[in-house]
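HUMAN:
Just now I want nothing more than another pair of eyes on a protein record. I would be glad if you read both lines and explained how they fit together. I have put the entry right below:
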Amino acid sequence: MANMYADCGFLVEARQVFNEMPERNSVTWNALITSIIRRGELGLAHALFDRLPNQNVVSWTDIIDGYARMNQHEVTLSVFWTMVGKDAYSKCGCMESVVKVFGFMDAKKKNLVSWTSIISGFAMHGMRKQAVHSFKSMENKCLKQNRVTFLSILSACSHGWLVEEGHEFFRKMVNECLVEPKIKHYECLIDMLGKVGRLEDGFADFS
C-alpha cells in the first residue's frame, strides 16, 4: 500500500502508511525506497535508506542507481565509497552505474577518493584488468596513490592471478611511493606468490 501511494506521487500518504505498519521488513523498506526514487525524490529516499536496519544489495543498488540516473555524479561516488567502507559492496550490482558516472565526471573532480573507489569496486567484482587499467590511468594523472589504493590493486591482482603485475605494484608502493605496507598488503603478496609456488621471491620484500 505504501509503495502504491508513492508510485502515484502521494509521498506524504506513503510515509504515513509506512510508519503505521506494525511490521516492516527489507522487502517493504526497499519497495518504498524504490518507488520514491522513481518519483525523483532522492533526498527522501536517502533519508529512508539511512533508517533501513539491514541495508542489502537491493537497497544499495537502488540508491546508487537513483543518484546516477539524476546525474548527481559526486553524490553517487560518495555513496559508493560509503558502501566500500562498510564492506557491503561485494554483491552489489551497481558497478555499471558507478563506472558510467565516473566516466561523465569532470576530470578535475576525479580525486584520490573517487579513483580509489572505482579501483576497489573493480577489485571486489573480479574485474582485475579494469582495476589495473584504472590504477595506471590514475598514475598518468599524476595522482599519488595511498595505502588503500595499493591494497585495492593488490587484492585485484591476487584474486585475478596477476602475479607479475601484483609483485611490481608492491615494489612500486614500497620503493617509489614510500608507502609502508601493512599486514593486509603482505597477505596479498603472499597469496599471489603462493599460488604459483614462488614464495621465495617475496622474501626480499619482507626485509
